[in-house]
Amino acid sequence: MDGIPIALSDQNNKKPGVIFVLEKASLEVAKVGKTYQILNSDDHANFLRRNNKNPADYRPDIVHQALLSILDSPLTKAGRLQAVFVKTEKGVLFEVKPHVRVPRTYKRFAGIMLQLLQKLSITAVGKREKLLRVIKNPVTQYLPVNSRKIGFSYSSEKLVKIRNYVDTVNNKADLVFVVGAMAHGKINTDYMDDCIAISGYPMSAARCIARICEALEDKWNLL
């Protein structure tokens, strides 16, 4: 793959923006047979069991669906998304530019992720711009000063209606949403200003992100 295409969006927007941080993404590279692959529970269950690992923990499809949910949203197309950061279970941090067009099929997505983790960056088709790049930790150094950092956990005692919650946030502040991209467990990050639950039921990362985007689109009248 020589690069990936970019999508058009209104990037001249100077209004408050949104950043997503996807924590604990399952993107682990291993040599399976003669090739390196991103491990997943469907294709590598026997390999994982032989190496005393639980196949249920290897779900790279979760971060794939989460990224599609973010990048497909009117929020992103209106230019309000500033950046997406993904941190893997192994602690590798990478940035996804807002105008990336992530492959819609999992197989192609896994190929892009493998290329990124091996080469540390991926450029746009026909350009030198790095659309995906591995960066140094911690993620906090890339977040805007005075941004409000909000984490999400089903186990949080603070259950809120997300539409009402975003209405209470300072209209001039950039918003950082921290969402877990793993199959089980919860995120533990010391940089969050708040940790909320937005449903009384467990939700997938993609569904949680869709709710966040819809609430902000409603707040900012993005149709």
Automatic annotation (TrEMBL):
Please tell me whether the keyword rRNA processing is annotated for this protein: yes
What keywords appear on the UniProt entry? Methyltransferase, Ribosome biogenesis, RNA-binding, rRNA processing, rRNA-binding, S-adenosyl-L-methionine, Transferase
The text of the family note is: Belongs to the class IV-like SAM-binding methyltransferase superfamily. RNA methyltransferase NEP1 family.
CDD domains assigned? Nep1-like
Spell out the Pfam families in the cross-references: EMG1 (PF03587)
The name this protein goes by in its record: Ribosomal RNA small subunit methyltransferase NEP1
Name the coiled-coil region(s).
none
